[in-house]
């Protein structure tokens, strides 16, 4: 009885997140927003559905059902990487978002803070060596 309730709850949560991601894809205005909504919401929704499937088939069968967990793990790794690559490609192609683009110098890598040649160098903290950190030696 408890397994069915848990599985039902995970299915409802997964369906809600998947539906939310689909609505975000349709309703949001620009490429970056459309990329963000489905990537986050649909990943959680499909992950919840896969976990529900794994729990259900593990409870029904003689052993653990790990196929769904492996698919969910693959999904959680590949979806953010794919979204990141699409966003970087869109920035490279200068796809405009709702709020516009960052300045061209920043997109070309020239807007990154460069060290000032006139400034004095900052001292680099020296890590403690093995001899300096020996508590027995400090006790003497």
UniProtKB/TrEMBL annotation:
InterPro entries tied to this protein: PhaG_MnhG_YufB
One Gene Ontology term of the molecular function aspect? sodium:proton antiporter activity
Q: Where is this region: Disordered?
A: 102-140
Q: Which Pfam families match?
A: PhaG_MnhG_YufB
**Thylakoid as a keyword?**
no
Q: Which UniProt keywords apply?
A: Membrane, Transmembrane, Transmembrane helix
- For this protein, the parts annotated as crossing the membrane are 6-26, 38-57, 69-87
Q: Where is the composition biased (Basic and acidic residues)?
A: 129-140
**Phosphoprotein among keywords:** no
What protein name does the entry list? Na+/H+ antiporter subunit G
Q: Which organism is it from?
A: Thiohalocapsa marina
